[in-house]
């Protein structure tokens, strides 16, 4: 993604493309996650960060659809119905952990993973009452993704360790056909987590081939 968090990463674009008729909504949700990531990455004062996150909560809660009108990500979320997806508030709560905590411990990692990953997977699936295994899959994916985007090696290792502990709660689930993009994201993350491998930066050709293989054969 670019510095303003509006352009989707190659990984997000590829995953959204597997959403079929729901691809536009998926792209909007990935863009929302990217915007929150940009907010967390560029905020140095926790209080300011919380104010910026509160603005997004107001957008989600605005029944009149006026708050944030003209902002590209907001407009895309409203146009596709993504603004009504379950889990958006949880995503904001998850990212808030990275905004307000000066040092993230294991509990902080868990809270981040539940919020960002569990919330994102619920939103992409469009299911308010999601099964526990789907939340676990989202948590594992979020921890894996974090491991590839932090400069703190200790935090990256702890994220992968926690992800491995979560893995049995999601492995072996029967993924509905409509959740194919989520299955691909989870399987890719699970493979790296079990190999103690941090998430890649960008989209190397080898990773693109892995995504294609998972989409075609499931592993």
If you had to describe this structure to a student in words, what would you say it looks like?
This protein is mostly helical and 219 residues long. It has one domain. Helices cover 66% and strands 0% of the residues. The chain has ten helices and no strands. Helix 2 packs antiparallel against helix 6 and helix 7 packs across helix 9. The N terminus is likely disordered.
Structural topology:
Elements: H1 10-17, H2 23-42, H3 46-61, H4 72-80, H5 88-100, H6 106-125, H7 132-147, H8 153-166, H9 180-194, H10 205-217
Assign the structural class, choosing from mainly alpha, mainly beta, alpha/beta, alpha+beta, or little secondary structure: mainly alpha
Gyration radius (Cα, Å) is 16 Å
Task: Please count the helical segments.
Answer: 10
Overall 3D shape: globular
What portion of the residues fall into strands of 2 or more residues?
A: under 5%
How many domains, in number, for the residues? 1
Element-by-element helix/strand order:
HHHHHHHHHH
Quick check: average pLDDT?
Answer: 93
Distance between the termini: 26 Å
Instruction: Determine the fraction of residues in helical runs and give it as a percent range.
Output: 55-70%
- Catalogue the unreliable spans: 1-5
| Major β-sheet annotation | none
Q: Tally of extended strands?
A: 0
Annotation keywords:
219 residues, mainly alpha, 10 helices, 66% helix, globular
A few lines on this structure:
The chain has helices spanning 10-17, 23-42, 46-61, 72-80, 88-100, 106-125, 132-147, 153-166, 180-194, 205-217. It has 219 residues and is mainly α.
């Amino acid at each position: 993604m670019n510095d303003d968090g509006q352009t989707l990463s190659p990984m997000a674009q590829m995953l959204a493309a597997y959403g079929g008729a729901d691809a536009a909504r998926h792209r909007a949700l990935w863009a929302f996650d990217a915007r929150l990531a940009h907010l967390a990455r560029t905020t140095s004062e926790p209080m300011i960060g919380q104010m910026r996150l509160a603005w997004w909560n107001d957008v989600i809660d605005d029944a009149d659809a006026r708050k944030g009108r003209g902002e590209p990500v907001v407009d895309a979320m409203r146009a596709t119905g993504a603004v009504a997806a379950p889990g958006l508030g949880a995503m904001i709560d998850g990212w808030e952990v990275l905004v307000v905590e000066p040092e993230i411990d294991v509990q902080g990692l868990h809270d981040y993973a539940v919020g960002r990953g569990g919330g994102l997977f619920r939103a992409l699936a469009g299911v308010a009452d999601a099964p526990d295994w789907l939340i676990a899959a989202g948590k594992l994916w979020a921890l894996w993704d974090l491991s590839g985007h932090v400069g703190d090696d200790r935090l990256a290792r702890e994220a992968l360790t926690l992800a491995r502990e979560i893995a049995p709660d999601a492995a072996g689930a029967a993924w509905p056909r409509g959740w194919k993009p989520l299955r691909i994201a989870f399987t890719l993350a699970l493979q790296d987590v079990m190999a103690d491998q941090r998430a890649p930066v960008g989209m190397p050709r080898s990773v693109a081939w892995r995504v294609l293989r998972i989409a075609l054969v499931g592993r």
